[in-house]
Design goal:
Arc Repressor Mutant, subunit A, Dna Ligase, domain 1, 3-stranded mixed beta sheet, 6 helices, binds zinc ion
Length: about 150
Amino acid sequence: MMNNINDIKSIKNKLNSKGYKLTAPRYKIISIIYNSKKHMNIDEIYGKLKCYKVGLCTVYRNLKLFEEVGILRRININNINYYELEKTDDNRVHVHIECKLCNELIDVNEEEVLDNLKKLVSLINKKYNIQIESSSLILSSVCGECNKR
Ligand SMILES: [Zn+2]
Ligand SMILES: [Zn+2]
């Protein structure tokens, strides 16, 4: 279950502000993604929900809703959708490294890298006279595990 009360509040607020409620099935779906260490696809999320009698349609519908209201971020790798919680800071930049062999997604969280990307975003904003709202960068590679094989 989710243990950070502020995270639950922020998720509830995002839903409420768009006129939706944090229902029991929605709470279960979010909890599973919240407690997962890795990015999950629909099959994996659904697999963990089966014992709670939450149907596949409900999962699909709510993942779409969570994405619309800014609770979840969807990352598409080789035509498979993976989900993670959306970060809350204003200047959102997301960098992922994908393994092209096993589809593993690695989050890049190093401040130095993200700071440089933010600089790049503001440079592009200036050059094109626009305001980029969010960015997602996916870099292709082979992960350490696959490299060993
Ligand atoms: Zn790999
Ligand atoms: Zn991620």
